[in-house]
């Protein structure tokens, strides 16, 4: 996933809001048997990925959540640390 390095630096508030959106995202939507849950999750995932591509700071937040959610005992790997909200 490449990012647009020409975009202006997101404000602290924008980074915190994006962090909260990643935090509340259903990262496991693709495992749902409910098509509505899957569709909603896919739409949110695409929106988050598109936003993350606008600046490296947002991409770092996105990747930290992805790494956290897809590591650990269930995935047979060491658990990545839980992301911390930007301050």
SSE arrangement:
Blueprint: H1 12-24, H2 35-52, H3 56-69
Helix pairs in contact: 1-3, 2-3
Q: Can you give a write-up of this model?
A:
The protein is mainly alpha-helical and 87 residues long. It has a domain at 12-69. 52% of the residues lie in helices and 0% in strands. The protein is built from three helices and no strands. It has helices spanning 12-24, 35-52, 56-69. Helix 1 (12-24) packs parallel to helix 3 and helix 2 packs antiparallel against helix 3 (56-69). It starts with 11 loop residues before the first helix and ends in an 18-residue tail after the last helix. 11% of the residues are buried. The model has no long low-confidence stretch (mean pLDDT 95).
Percent of residues in helices comes to 40-55%
User: How much of the residues is beta strand, in percent?
Assistant: under 5%
Q: Indicate the structural class.
A: mainly alpha
Radius of gyration: 14 Å
The oligomeric state is single chain
Shape: globular
Unreliable runs:
none
Q: How many helix segments?
A: 3
- Sheet of most strands: none
- Helix and strand pattern: HHH
Secondary structure tally: strands: 0
| End-to-end CA span | 25 Å
What value does the average pLDDT take?
95
Notable traits:
87 residues; mainly alpha; 3 helices
Task: Offer a quick outline of the entry.
By secondary structure, this protein is mainly alpha-helical. The protein has a domain at 12-69. The protein is built from three helices and no strands.
